[in-house]
Fold:
Amino acid sequence: MTHKISVDKKTCIGCGTCAALCPESFKMEGDKAVPIKEEVDKISCEKEAEEACPVDAIKVE
Structure:
């Protein structure tokens, strides 16, 4: 089963928390975070990044 990862660029404030917590799945592009992979087979730090996002811009489904 794959899990989709997304970052709402309109909501993202560019704090970098997701990239710091989960650098294998998130990176900073300019002043916004973007997913490195849009899908993962196994969730690891992605959920932690989703929960730590101060503006709820990250979704892991």
Remarks:
- The chain has two helices and five strands.
- Residues 9 and 51 are 17 Å apart (CA to CA).
